[in-house]
Design brief:
Helix 4 runs antiparallel to helix 5. It is built from five helices and no strands. The model has no long low-confidence stretch (mean pLDDT about 80). The longest helix is centred in the C-terminal third of the chain and has 19 residues. By secondary structure, it is mainly α.
Length: about 110
Amino acid sequence: MNNAQLLARMVLDFDLDNGGHFLPDTMLKLARELLQFAPVPSALDDQVGGDHYRSCKIQPVRYIEANELLFLEGCVVKRITRHDKPTGKGRQDIEKAIHELQLLLELRYNE
């Protein structure tokens, strides 16, 4: 939220705390209009446990969703993307990706 929107939120909260009859209707109307333009935060802008996906040119989740990949394929994309990052798990990520690919062969192609 920008400063005007924060002020608008404070005005509305103040009015509510005082029974809803403290401020003129025109001020309340303006405050409500300002809040309508508040940016909606995106879950894509937040990451729990590091920034190894947010720092990518294309976040794995965007790639996975855009290409309608299923669970195992998505896991492989995520592991390969993060294996060499500071918060990745190196060799373990590669081994897990290989295992997930082996699962794909077995479950989808009976191999």
